[in-house]
Design the sequence.
């Protein structure tokens, strides 16, 4: 729990709004007991996404810092917990609920093109959260089984044209993360 506590403190220092604290507490409760493939608590991932999005906002779009932090922290709640759209809208507002819905897969094997079209239609906040979600997922691939790593990298390399169109500003970051993971695994592009 020390890593989780450090992440919570870091996000609260970046964006000390009460509503961000409420979102963190909500995510901690909803993701309790959920673990990632590498054994890390899943909520650490969502908080890191909130931190990355808040950092981006503070440097580029300060008025969005709280909403981006909240959406980052909550981005997996509809997909991975019994949370409803109505709960999110009631607690955090309709825009947050709409953004989190745009980031949620309809089904596990949903085609990337359909998923990314929904993310793009979700607007700037959805695209930014997806960027930082994907980058954090790439960073944590190291602890996953090799077969899973290869599958993810193959799918994401195929989705690069979609990324270029959906998030031109973040495209280079996504491409670099794919290339770094491919290099680490000895996969040729």
Sequence:
């Amino acid at each position: 729990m020390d890593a989780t506590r450090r992440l919570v403190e870091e996000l609260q220092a970046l964006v000390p709004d009460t509503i961000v604290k409420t979102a963190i507490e909500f995510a901690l409760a909803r993701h309790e007991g959920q673990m990632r493939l590498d054994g890390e608590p899943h909520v650490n991932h969502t908080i890191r996404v909130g931190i990355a999005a808040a950092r981006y906002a503070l440097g580029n779009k300060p008025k969005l810092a709280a909403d981006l932090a909240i959406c980052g922290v909550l981005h997996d709640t509809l997909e991975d917990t019994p949370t409803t759209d109505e709960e999110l809208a009631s607690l955090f507002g309709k825009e947050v609920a709409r953004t989190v819905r745009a980031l949620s897969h309809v089904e596990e094997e949903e085609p990337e093109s359909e998923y990314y079209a929904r993310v793009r239609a979700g607007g700037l906040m959805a695209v930014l959260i997806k960027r930082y979600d994907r980058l954090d997922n790439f960073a944590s691939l190291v602890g996953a089984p090799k077969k899973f790593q290869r599958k993810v990298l193959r799918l994401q390399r195929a989705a690069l044209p979609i990324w270029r169109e959906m998030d031109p500003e973040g495209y280079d970051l996504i491409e670099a993360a794919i290339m770094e993971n491919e290099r680490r695994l000895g996969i040729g592009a």
